[in-house]
Design brief:
With about 150 residues, this protein is an all-alpha fold. The protein is built from 5 helices and no strands. Helix 1 packs antiparallel against helix 2, helix 3 runs antiparallel to helix 4 and helix 4 packs antiparallel against helix 5. It is elongated. The protein starts with a helix and ends with a helix.
Length: about 150
Amino acid sequence: MNTYTQEVGVKLNALLEKTYDAEKGFKKAAENIENQSLKKYFAEKAKERYIFGHDLKNEIRTFNQDIEKGGSVSGSAHRAWMDIKSLFSLEDEESMLEEAIRGEKASIEEYKEVLGEINLPSSTKTVLESQKNVIENGLYNMKTLEEI
């Protein structure tokens, strides 16, 4: 197995880990929010990340790499912070939405970083560009929800 394949596998596994984190975070937000529109929106975002995870797994398998399970320590900390905010904040929904926006901005930067790699295969680049575009559109929608 060449180094190129291993590097791509490692980078995709890192994105997959963060995708798991985002899915869990959106599920947690949907569980802890009263506003039905936001609850539905967060649940849809969790499903979206679930699909992203499957797409990333397929790309990782293409390179005969092992698929890492679970999420990251920083993702667990992020969800714990959302839990704390939901307990103590008078404006739970706004706080959770702000936290989700922050997480989505970080996701976009992570995708840009991986997409900046010169040696990405075209299939991987296509999947990542598509997912990044969906996240960017969702971020725009979240900012719109924030104004409501």
